[in-house]
């Protein structure tokens, strides 16, 4: 049970010692932490080994560091706990254990300590990571999502010579695997339903039947692949994240890369503790499928153009048409059982002779039925029914040479379709109109029954049942209310069912065309889009849960959540060159697809971690993520959230490449993708701010409004300014997101190296701007976090090596503030 710590100075101050008051030698600082696999106890022994590291970069580029052993010392945790001043002074011994070659001071720092002193303490916490993640006491609940914490603690001096304690904690998130598993299950269910719907189209002419068989076969292949992937994922136990070295592994392609949460907690004298959260994740991209032809944005545009030019064997429907077809299918599938259930409620109220219940049930039934009819009053449904009849043996349109509406291509194989019966184009209008007529009959009957209801003069005295029965019988010789309503409601159900059958077949035929025109490339692209969306949604769900638990006691935040929604700002450091431009194209589509997601808060059945896991429901064009909360926490929420209101999230993406590949792109390549992404997402962010300002003015007081307005104005200027590696875009977008109570994400290819530089920079900038970090400490704090903090631990977790994957030539292309300290980088496989 021993831990070995190497103290390897790589800081400029180690080459040029600082002059400390009363000291002639430089001060070397490092930290010790105990990982979960080696928990600390009083008997735990810690061995400190000190090396002399000299910089030889000027003499030998290939081996810039010279390392030689100085000495070592050993102590137990109990020795440190029993020490008077929480400090131990240990003698360093030579390798033979005889000579004393120096001393080492070991100190223990607890969160919340505020000691005055002359010395700069930058140290790490030796305690096990605490479970508390958020200001409210909800740590037990968050244990269901966040695992394997790594914690570091620093002590810095402020401009007024006070001391602040900074704690950063990094954790894995179980949603990395649970959300993709749920999505895969939904993908499989949806595709199996599609196969069933295609089979239910009935008899088709040979041409269309062959296309149907081919499409069904392709869907079957996708289902088989997804089932195999899901089976492999269900076997995985252990860590809750996918390391960067596994980003191209087939069975892990739906899992986000290196997803971690990171929280910085700042404790200052006479101030409330401040918390700053960020989610780090590799760019959502289909690494297993590769980027030879580019990413999703380019591939989808190219495929859409090819569909238009080669749609000779099928009818071309635009993406808007196919989206409308999916919407109609969902609407009729959702509304039919609702209408049927409401009709049964109406009959039950009639049987109970409850006029109040009758009117209430009728009001809801009328609303849902009108919504049902409105969903079907679309020319796409009518034209699709016409096309379906033309594709069946024995049917043809009135005009055999007719070109379908909305620019659709004519059927070029109509000569092969038997022409026995003409299709009546007005039939569909009559069918769905019958639904409205049936509803009107029901309304009229309820009105008639209301006229027959006996008037109770004394409202406080109920009418005796026998008297009520006599009155009803005298006015209704044909029977009771239920008997009079029942045939009308049966007719309504029959009309609705007939419409559903026709509409479902028509919209399925539209989707058959979309799939037939897309074979085989379209289904491959759908798989790619599924993969990217799965990674993006897992990250978003992680961020939403983290932000929700952190804001449970913030009434303003909760009001903003249900009135406007949350902004989710993704920061990307990908270059617009080579493979990374394909990753960025994937990421753009994946983040944009998150607009199809809403969240709902529910009350958990129990406080057991299994019952607190978010549940994904829905289909590809619309998903709902239900987030269960413990009963006590749920009861504190606003009424609208408890009633199940859908909570919107507004994802925005800003990208600025910073590496040597971006240098090539800036000088010789094309950066239009980055410019377009930043401009488009600035408009989304600006629109969100205006909506928040109008709907929740209390969250935007005058000063806040002015600050946000100025920040947005500056961001708007920067996204249109032609400036290389304009990282100010990222800083401004991140600041605006935090001011808007949003969710922050930071990404690069693997969320390991460039992401680490960005996260540590953001943390130190927050300490400087929000907590008065002494300006003399800024670079030292930055280097310390990069050398000793959570991010170097993230590198270790991913590649089993404590080196950022940069070389000296690469770093020369980086903005200076994004360069790690010497001794912490070296070219390794990422």
UniProtKB/TrEMBL annotation:
Q: Provide GO CC annotations from the record.
A: cytoplasm
**Keywords carried by this UniProt record:** Hydrolase, Lipid metabolism
Q: Does the keyword Lipid metabolism apply?
A: yes
- Give the InterPro entries listed for this entry: INPP4 (IPR039034)
Molecular functions per Gene Ontology: phosphatidylinositol-3,4-bisphosphate 4-phosphatase activity
Top-level taxon of origin = Eukaryota
Record protein name field: Inositol polyphosphate-4-phosphatase type II B
